[in-house]
Amino acid sequence: MNGSVRWWRGRKWAPRQQRRQERHGYAAGPWWQGVAVGISFLLFTLVATAAFAQEPSQRLTITPSLSIGERYDDNIFATQTNKQHDFITVLSPGIHVQYLSPTPTLAAPFLLPSFDSGRRAPYLPLEPIREPPFDFDYHADFQIFHDNSSQNDVAHRLGLTVAWPFAPSLQVRLRELLLVTEEPLGRDERLSDPTGLRPASQQSRARTTRNEAEGRADVRLGGRLSLGVLFGSLVEDVEIPQELDEFRYTVGAELGYAVNVARESRVFLAYQVTFDSFRANGGVPLGGTDASFRVHAISTGVRHELTPTLAIQAALGYSFTTSDAPENDDHKAVSANVGLIKTFNLGQASLRYARRFISGEGQGGVVLANTLGATASINLTGKLTAALDGNVSWFDFRSVTVSTLNLNQRFWSVEPGLTYQIIRPWRASVGYSYEYTNFSDNTIGNRSDHRLFLGTQFALREWLVLDLSYRYGARRTHGGNVTVGGVNDFTGNQIMLTVTASPSLRF
């Protein structure tokens, strides 16, 4: 209680905000305001449109929520020695807006040429993976540390999905995920596949902001011809000197021709360019480069429904980089993107392969990445749902720096999960993720990361839910005499009890 009283009286809260504003004044500056205003306008427009134009069988649901929880953390700074434990009170207001249609569309696996399914939430769906036309979810976590009040913080999570036919000839798809947090075990969620290229910020208790968005608009030009406009963006802001901040946006166009309208078979020709820039939080990491670069990609391919429940996309192209810095300029490679998605009565599965130029994220520079991934979600018994998400990636760092270290690496990730509906108001879930990074240079220590989640929910009322969860996190380094800056062995345990009130308003 002493920590709570100190926090509410403002003895620690105000100076912490002032320090953040002095270090990163832009965090509440134009880009943040632009994102907030844009999302607010989009939310208002789509909700108003849905409420005005919905059919009797369609439904708009607005669910405000408020939860309060108590968490125990035995290693709040994720260190191997001198561990500090604490109790943290978490107050979370939020809102969830969802528009449902009679026939929700299947989640599309090919939003952008580099689109991949994202990390899963702790609780898995008990139905086949489908997406509503509009889904907006936001909550803030006011975290109050009882003994370490200087760590008091407000975390934010915003998720947005739009799959909306604005007109018979215009289809828009958009996904956005915004995470602002200082919690090391709260940064796993992302739209794209995990890469393991930001190990220091995933361990350090420091302010991190990740805003990731992907979207496209398809316009039917007439007959069988269509034009797709592609967009993507990423803002990765970390407050640690061992990694670079990254700012990335992608624009492109895709010209398609329907070969078979009934089978939704179409061939396409696409071009996109990605602009990547970085900012150092002190010095440039050892072996890294903060030089900006651009990736140009030209590809052609085909999308085809082999059967009503089996779809495939295959694209082959050519990519090259341009930059004012010699180490990031004039890299060339064949690019590829292949995906297969199968829909079952009880679930969905996908297999994907991508070869493309990406950034080294926290290290900067140009990287040629080859990624093979798979995702599956199946309702096994009506009460038991299983999910699996995994990938293996090979990263070839192409930028030449003054460092003699070879940062080429192979990254493994596997994440199985189970959800069991014990009785109607009570369910339990278990999830586990394992990540392993293997460096080509034997002087750099390899690392493995483990995450375990156990949770149970009980609905006291339709709108009132009790939640008990346990999280375990661990990192181990293996071999080598050099480690990436900010990366150390650690183990951490968290136990949390939460009660949430979330009455739904249906229109």
Can you describe what's shown?
The chain is mainly beta. It has a 20-stranded antiparallel barrel. Strands 3-4 form a two-stranded antiparallel sheet. A hairpin with a 6-residue loop joins strand 15 and strand 16. The protein has a single domain (2-506), classed as Maltoporin, Chain A, CATH 2.40.170. Residues 1-38, 44-54 and 106-129 have low confidence and may be disordered. Helices cover 8% and strands 57% of the residues. The protein has helices spanning 2-8, 13-23, 30-53; strands at residues 59-73, 86-100, 105-106, 130-131, 134-145, 153-167, 170-181, 208-222, 225-238, 244-260, 265-280, 293-307, 310-322, 332-343, 347-359, 366-379, 384-397, 409-423, 426-439, 446-461, 464-478, 490-501, 505-506.
